[in-house]
Structure formats: C-alpha cells, structure tokens
Amino acid sequence: MTAPRTALVFDLDGTLIDSAPDLHLAANLVLRDEGLPEITFAQARSFIGKGAANLISRVMTAVGLGDDPDEHARLLAKFMEHYEGEPANTVLYPGVVDALARLEAAGHPMGLCTNKPGEPTRIALRHFGLDRFMQAVASADTLPERKPDPAPLHHVARALGDGTALYIGDSEVDAETARRAGLPFALYTEGYRKTPISELYHTYIFDHFDQLPDLVARHGASVEA
Ligand SMILES: O=C(O)COP(=O)(O)O
Ligand SMILES: [Mg+2]
Questions:
Q1: Which ligand gives the minimal distance to the CA of 139?
Q2: Model pLDDT for residues 147-202, shown as the tens digit of each residue
Q3: Which of 5, 67, 120, 141 is deepest in the core (most CB within 10 A)?
Q4: Are residues 13 and 29 in the same domain?
Q5: Which residues pair with 17 in a beta bridge?
Q6: Strand partners of residue 186
Q7: Could you list the residue ranges that cross the membrane (predicted)?
Q8: Confidence tier at 85 by pLDDT (50, 70, 90)
Q9: Ligand 1: does its nearest atom lie under 6 Å from the Cβ of 56?
Q10: Does one domain contain both 131 and 63?
Q11: Separation of CA 21 from chain center
Q12: Domain range holding 68?
C-alpha cells in the first residue's frame, strides 16, 4: 500500500499573495480619516504577520498613539471596513496557481493557515481562484489560538488526513509555528521576512513557486517511503 501524499499547508500573506499594498492603503485611509500622519509602505510591510489587531497596534505605536484598548478597537474596526472589500492592489506571487495545480494533480491534499481574519481570507481566496485548492482553512477567527501557537497549523494538518504535513510560509511567525508544531517548513524567501534565512527555522527554501512541485516531490520521496 502506498503512503498518503504529504499534506501541504500554506500561509497566505507574503506567501501566496502580496497583500502589502492593500494593507498599507487600508491603514493609511484610517490614519488620513483621523487626521494623523501616514505610514510608509516599508513600515506597513514590516507590520504584517501577526494579524490585523497586531498591525493596528504597530500602526498606533508608529504614529505615537499609545496603546489604549478602546482606541485600538475603534481603529481596528475602521481598518476592517476598509480592508474587507475586493483586494484591488493585491497580486498573486508568480507561478502560484500553476504550482498548486501541479501539486493537486500529484495528489497532495492542501490547506491554508493564516493570521488574516476570516472574511478577508475568504474574499482573497475566492478572488484569486485559490479556494478550489484548499480543503481546510484556519484563519485568525477559526480557533482561540493564532500563529505562532501551533494549534491552527495542527488543526489544518489533521483536517487534511493522517499522512505527514509540510508547512509553507514566508515569515518569522510561520517558521516559529512550524518549529513548535514539529513540522517541516519550506520558507518562501520573497515574502515579508525581516530576519536572515540562516537565523530562521527551516527545512527548505525556495524563491519561486516553479520550484515548489519538485521540492515537494523530493520531500515526499524522503518521508512517504
Ligand atoms: O495578516 C497578517 O498579519 C498575516 O497573515 P498571514 O498569516 O497570512 O501571513
Ligand atoms: Mg505570511
């Protein structure tokens, strides 16, 4: 009997889609509306990875607003209003759809584990035609725990079957999540990572999705035997 194909769990922002322009825009629409100074693209990009609530905390610190919880809740709600529309300035990273189609054809169950809230996650997956590949999704609202807690990653991996799993992501948070989950990790190096590769937990690295099907096949040959 052949072993089940390795389940593949993907991160979303900075891995499958480059959503930083829309997150930057939504943050600045809030700041503009509040009569506050705007943040740069580089700042916005560096605030992505721990979800929308964390992004708003980072924005508040950056513009000198402090950390009042009521103010945070108010600004987060305004941010979500701006962010929940169709992702007009977000793009897929090159080769993503082809790679997922090849991996699906090779029989790998696939799912998503993101810190993005549920509604924008669903909208983005549908917008880019990625929903058809994802058999299980954990977003920021699925469980009480969020990455780097390993619970959402375990949740998706379990939903994809009882074979082995590989996590694929771009950030410090993803590397830490995979390490804590005890799962192998493929680091996509073109996302929002700020730390040198050598300092991050990883099993594989790749810089273009064209490389992913072969990487997964090699991984499978070593663990599915
Ligand atoms: O929205 C975020 O901050 C992070 O999202 P990700 O987990 O898909 O990278
Ligand atoms: Mg990410």
A1: 1
A2: 999 999 999 999 999 889 999 999 999 999 999 999 999 999 999 999 999 999 99
A3: 120
A4: no
A5: 13, 92
A6: 168, 204
A7: none
A8: confident
A9: no
A10: no
A11: 15
A12: 20-83
**Residues 152, 96 share a domain:** yes
Q: Amino acid identity of 52? A: A
Q: What average pLDDT does the segment 135-140 reach?
A: 98
Contact 115/146 with Cβ under 8 angstroms? yes
Tell me the backbone φ, ψ of residue 211, rounded to 5 degrees: -80, -15
Average pLDDT over every residue of 4-27: 96
| Residues 192 and 43 sit within 8 Å (Cβ to Cβ) | no
Tell whether the model's pLDDT for residue 1 goes beyond 60. no
Tell me which of 11, 18, 22, 174 is the catalytic residue: 11
Give the number of the atom of ligand 1 that is nearest the alpha carbon of residue 54: 3
For residue 182, give the amino acid letter. G
Does the complex come out with an ipTM higher than 0.90?
yes
Do 26 and 116 sit in the same domain of this protein?
no
Chain mean pLDDT for the chain? 96
- Of 40, 35, 169, 140, which Cα lies nearest the Cα of 80? 140
Judged against a pLDDT cut of 90, whether residue 225 lies above it is answered with no
